[in-house]
Amino acid sequence: MSVLRLEQTSRWFGNVVAVNGITMSVGPGITGLLGPNGAGKTTLIALMSGFLAPSAGAVTLDGEPVWRNTGAYRTLGLVPEREVSFGYLTGRQFVLANAELHGLRDPGAATRRALEVVDLLEPAGRRIGTYSKGMRQRVKLASALVHDPAVLLLDEPFNGVDPRQRLHLMALLRRMGAEGRTVLFSSHILEEVEQVARQIEVVVSGRHAASGEFGEIRRLMTDRPVQYVIVADDDRGLASRLIAEPSVLAVALRTDGGVDVSVSDFGAFALRLPRVAREHGTRILEVRPTDDSLESVFSYLVGG
Ligand SMILES: Nc1ncnc2c1ncn2[C@@H]1O[C@H](COP(=O)(O)OP(=O)(O)OP(=O)(O)O)[C@@H](O)[C@H]1O
């Protein structure tokens, strides 16, 4: 049972602050690290795996600093986001190379075991260059697992992987978590994280925006105010009726036509809007959410 801990951890590159004073603990089971592109997930994972030194604060594994600590490297496995650049190696050669780097007593047996876990024994004699994207992810996973680490860190493992392979990979991660390993994976897709992770940590612009069980995070995201543009055949009439609705927070006429509507409870609003329109004989021509991007959800979470 291993626990990774970040304490007021920051990392900057010149004047870019990639990770900004993050404090969090990652324990056994599966944790999802959720954040939009550029949020600092890759930098965080590099800090947690001992590939980068923190500029300030500390990263520890079971109380010991991770940076420049060979003991920690034996406990950690990392699946980086970048593609394996050794396409000319076979899957077996690639995993074996890592087993040898770790100085394992029986690298051949460890390689076989790791390839079996990810279900790649059969194609292990083929060159990685001929593998599908999902197979390439799994061979990276086998390489990260070859020394049987208690902690497994994966950077965007589902990116570009087809749906069937994705399910396969998710099942593998669940198994790792159920075995008591500390598994953390990053993603920018909430649905992906929800399907596998028990615990979710949200990062935005290098800051720790939220932390909790996925139900809590989902609630935080869905309870936020939502903005719509609604275009009707009578914008002014519609605006005056909508402002009387309890689910509506604010209404403003747009100069280019349509109404900006800020909604507190979009479930209730979705039920009311067609009724309000029908009762007053108004035709709705368009309903368009204006801030449904993940970025806006995140900026809401960080209070931006
Ligand atoms: N080596 C570096 N030198 C300069 N800036 C960097 C470096 N590494 C990361 N950054 C910057 O730090 C910020 C966080 O980047 P990071 O790659 O950690 O984010 P991310 O959440 O993993 O995003 P993505 O999913 O797009 O990779 C970005 O603004 C990035 O440009």
UniProtKB/TrEMBL annotation:
It comes from Phycicoccus endophyticus. This is ABC transporter ATP-binding protein. Gene3D superfamilies: P-loop containing nucleotide triphosphate hydrolases. Residues 4-230 form the ABC transporter domain. InterPro entries: AAA+_ATPase, ABC_transporter-like_ATP-bd, ABC_transporter-like_CS, P-loop_NTPase. Keywords: ATP-binding, Nucleotide-binding, Transport. Pfam families: ABC_tran (PF00005). Belongs to the ABC transporter superfamily. One of its GO terms (molecular function) is ATP binding.
